[in-house]
Amino acid sequence: MRAQKVSFKYPKGEKKALNGLDFEVNDGEIFGFLGPSGAGKSTTLGILTGSITGWSGKVAVGGTNPEEADGDFYRNIGVCFESPRFHMKFTAAENLKLFGGLYGKKLRNMKELMDRVGLADDLNKKVEAYSKGMKTRLSLVRSLLHNPDLLFLDEPTTGLDPTLSRTVHNMIQEERDQGKTIFLTTHDMVTAGSLCDRVGFLSNGNLVLIDSPAALALRFGSREVRVESSIGSTRNFPMKGLAENEGFLTLLRSGVVETIHSREAGLDDIFRRVTGKNLT
Q1: What percentage of the chain exceeds 70 in pLDDT?
Q2: What is the pTM of this model?
């Protein structure tokens, strides 16, 4: 999946929503677009999946220009939208059967997928009775149902509690472990840090930085460890020469140490330092 110099302006927009984006998503990786609301994440996803046209630049998804997408293209991708659309008067099962029937291929077990996301008991409930978080999980199931090779996930943990978020994280990682390529958007640095092999920082339609979360944490963090003690003191020690640092060793032997932490930077802090903006 590759985008080259991609720009886009909505017909009634005063400025460009995207400004010359350049990025590549490797096969079998989870690539995350990290940015606040309005940064251009959903616009990018719309271009990659063919739902937004009229952009400039070059885009190839599985070797196909999304503006020229055919049935084979859509059989090979799964999309989970932040604000998914369903037939509200239909049950979840009826919706999944309807959408699943469009692909003309063998489907995964609907009940098993619904059970994984905690919706097994709601399979025959009308979608109009679903909460926002339930619709998000149903949208994830719909995106996985036809077992696509490419997944596009727009804020996949929106409206979910920590337990359900962890379940969704595990499911996404399992898809990656099966060789799937996953493009996700999020403003949640926990989701980005725990899931993504690489992340791109998007701010005001500009892609300002791409790297792995681990590499970013080291690049922008301090090469120090912070030691907190039970007597209320906090001291920082440089990692270089730590094993021979007499002050550090003395503190360890004192018996008052409560915590020791390395001082890598968090993604939210890095984003703020690079863009001057908060993620939320």
Answers
A1: 100
A2: 0.86
